[in-house]
Amino acid sequence: MDAAFFDMDGLLVDTEKVWLKIETEVMKVLGGVWTPEHQTHLVGGSMERTVDYMLAVSGSSVAPEVLRGWMIDGMVAELAGGVQTMPGALELLGDLRAQGVPIALVTSSLKEIAESVLAAVGREHFDVIVTADDVTRTKPDPEPYLTAAALLGVEPVRCVVLEDSPNGVAAGTAAGCAVVAVPSLLPIEPAAGRLVVSSLTEVDVARLRALVPPASM
């Protein structure tokens, strides 16, 4: 295994409930109603997709850039109070670091939001950070994971992606990586090159290495 790529929201940190809170509050300002079912349409997606969907659901005429600003400000303010890491995440990061495996954080969230999470979790866990601001196409496009691999100078086929959403799994698979899926709000089925577990506590470095094909001679 040449590198491990961690998603952020829902995989590294328990922020899906934070997103739901901020989306609900902003939707009230827009004059609409927001439910957990609405949120499932946005799991693993970009801010642009979130803004477009919220405007469509609410029927509001608020400018997209204004709504985008409300969402960013709300998330940054909420995350300033701290974040909860997902079970097993910090332990796995520590074990990977101890064994010298390069690690990238690859998220569809904007840089401002990722920085708020990293301030709480610790940037030192990651060799490379790839956010929505660093790519032209976000997940499910493979560009974010291909970008991380290029920055680390590794081959995607020898890397493992850890994800919680179908969009993220699709991106990792399209990039050519092995994938560990820890489903959060949406189900993810096992498939070739994909391990599905209920928690990162079920995964260790040896299990990740076993997902990667042997290096060609």
UniProtKB/TrEMBL annotation:
**What are the boundaries of the signal sequence?**
none
Q: Which GO terms describe its molecular function?
A: hydrolase activity
| Keyword terms | Hydrolase
**Does the record bear Ribosomal protein in its keywords?**
no
Report the domain of life of the source organism.
Bacteria
- Give the matching Pfam families: HAD_2
Q: InterPro entries in the record, alphabetically? A: HAD-like_sf, HAD-SF_hydro_IA, HAD_2, HAD_sf, PGP-like_dom2
Q: Can you name this protein?
A: HAD family hydrolase
